[in-house]
Amino acid sequence: MPQNRGLGALLAVAAFRKVWAVGALGGVVRWIEMLAFAVYVFDITHSPFLVALVSLVRMLPLAFFGAVVGALADRVDRQKIVLGGLVLLFVVALLLAWLAYSGRLEIWHLLAGSLINGFYWSTDMPARRTLLGAIAGAERVAPAMALDASTNSLTRAVGPATGGLLVAFTGLPGALLLGAGLYAVAIFLMLTLPRQDGGRAAPELGLWRTLKEGLSYAAKDRAVLGIMIVTLIFNIWVFPYTAMIAVIGRDDLGLGPFNVGLLMSMEGAGAFIGAIAVAFWGRRSAYGRIYLYGAIGAEICLMLFAISPHPLLSGLMLLLAGVGAGCFSSMQATLMLLLAPPEIRGRLMGVLSVCIGLGPLGFAHLGLMADWLGTAQAVTIMGLEGLCAFVLAWLFWPEIR
Q: CA 327, CA 310: separation in Å to the nearest integer?
């Protein structure tokens, strides 16, 4: 199987392994923090809206700076962008751990930490993933992105379970200190990475013109636009539910921090299964359908999760939702990198980051509805709205299927 050989060959490249591992480490910390922050904020405030707000601010930088970072990544060294972000997150994690340990931690500190983490997240698509695709080469970009997506999905299983365990036994400071340690390892990997192509694809253009060309290309190419539309729908109407798993687990199912972490990890485990299946058996002719129908399947399973009264059934629905989300996420960057000309890939990945970054609209919508109607009802309504949006995308952008 060509893709299998591609995976083996990719993992034999030291540079690829290091950039891939940096993404894995960052993903684990991200999900540890999301679970730990959500449990801490809900236990302190009992407000679903504030729980959603902590996750919302993590995504704001993607909306406001994703395209700018994408344009910047086509002009400067991508390795420096990734390394600088990791150093900043390491310092922030240590500072938050000290505040939590000393009893000085307040909600606004977590909001600020989430916002800074979001700045780094906004560099992942245009900087780290684009660098990963450049190392892999055009012939192996699909297995490279599927492997990266499957690894990211696995971090969504490992991170919440680890975060729940740490919060239960060591409190928030333990979770934050582990995050700082993992960031330190990622920094070491980037420092030892041989110099790669810095992504200076358009040095002769100004930053605004570079950004404008990326947006213009996305608007003119219907297939690229279709990818953007599905990504937008997923991040507004599907992804925000992650902020409510802790609330449903604590409030509706009566679970403790560790079991909430296990529940949240089920979605990550399913996403890993879906993404790794695509890496091994996905056919290029089916990439668009895998992308679209995976997102729709995730939406349906999340609605069933919201109305489930039993923890085991809830976990099963999250597992199946994760499979769909894994199929979606493994194809997201793959389709963009395959369709985009090499000289503007960073810019288009930046525009894609903006679509991801508009997710705060969904977090705010879900959080307000949860405070008003209850969490389970809010997730169900969001699911119905999302399904309507997916049907419209299916009708108006046949290129994606």
A: 26
Domains of the chain, by residue range, sit at: 2-198+207-400
Go through 150-180 and write b for each residue having 16 or more CB atoms within 10 A of its CB, e for each that does not.
bbbbbbbbbbbbbbbbbbbeeebbbbbbbbb
Tell me how crowded residue 216 is: count the other CB atoms within 10 A of its CB.
12
**Residues 248-297 pLDDT 10s:** 888 888 888 788 888 888 888 898 898 888 877 777 788 889 999 999 99
Quote the pLDDT of residue 139. 72
Closest CA to 269 of 330, 329, 322: 322
Residue with tokens 């340990």: 101
CATH dotted code for 2-198+207-400: 1.20.1250.20
For the whole model, what pTM was predicted?
Answer: 0.68
Q: How far is it, in rounded angstroms, from Cα 278 to Cα 349?
A: 21
Other beta carbons within 10 angstroms of residue 388's beta carbon come to 11
Q: What does the block give as tokens for 8?
A: 């083996």
Residue 132: Cβ-neighbour burial (10 angstroms; 0-12, 13-18, 19+): buried
